[in-house]
Amino acid sequence: TQIKVMFDTYDKDKSGSVDIEEFKQILYMAMKVPQHVGLPMSRVQYFWSQIDMGHSGTVTFEKFLCWWIKYFDDSSAQGMKQMPFEDYYRHIRRIGQR
Predict the structure, then answer these.
(1) For all residues of the chain together, what is the average pLDDT?
(2) How many CB atoms lie within 10 A of CB 62?
(3) For residues 49 and 86, what is the distance between their CA atoms, to the nearest angstrom?
(4) Cα–Cα distance measured from residue 72 to residue 86, given in angstroms and rounded to the nearest whole number
(5) In this predicted model, what pLDDT tens digit does every residue of 1-46 receive, in sequence order?
(6) Distance between CA atoms of residues 96 and 18, nearest Å
(7) How far apart are CA 63 and CA 65, in angstroms?
(8) Residue 81 has pLDDT above 50, yes or no
(9) CA–CA separation, 51 and 45 (whole Å)
(10) Which residues are 17's β-sheet partners?
């Protein structure tokens, strides 16, 4: 699937799992964060805590997929005006335009 290809693309060391730095790059892509805006580390750590509940420091594709479906899959957002991350990002973008 496209999600697996994306996961494998950001799994730079080809270990079959991603660490927080690799995960951060996935967030930048998924949230369409411009390079000059950046994401606060607190936001990255928040999402990371949602996916790495065992505190192992790495996340397998299976765990990643469950997290992806919760936050980014269109079918899980039926009936919602916005995905959970969109409100946050909309606020960031507004600040960046001032």
Answers:
(1) 80
(2) 9
(3) 19
(4) 10
(5) 789 999 999 999 999 999 999 999 998 888 888 878 888 899 899 9
(6) 29
(7) 5
(8) no
(9) 10
(10) 60
Structure-token pair, residue 84 = 């959970």
What phi-psi label fits residue 57: left (phi over 0), alpha (psi between -120 and 50 degrees) or beta? Answer: left
Please answer whether residues 60 and 16 qualify as being in contact, where contact means their C-beta atoms are separated by less than 8 angstroms: yes
The pTM is what?
Answer: 0.71
pLDDT tier, 90 (very low <50, low <70, confident <90, very high otherwise): low
* Cα 64 off chain centre by: 9
Contacts 24+ apart (CB under 8 A), 32-38: 32/89, 33/89, 33/92, 34/96, 36/96, 37/92, 37/93, 37/96
Cα 25 to the chain's mean position, in Å? 8
Token pair belonging to 59: 């996340």
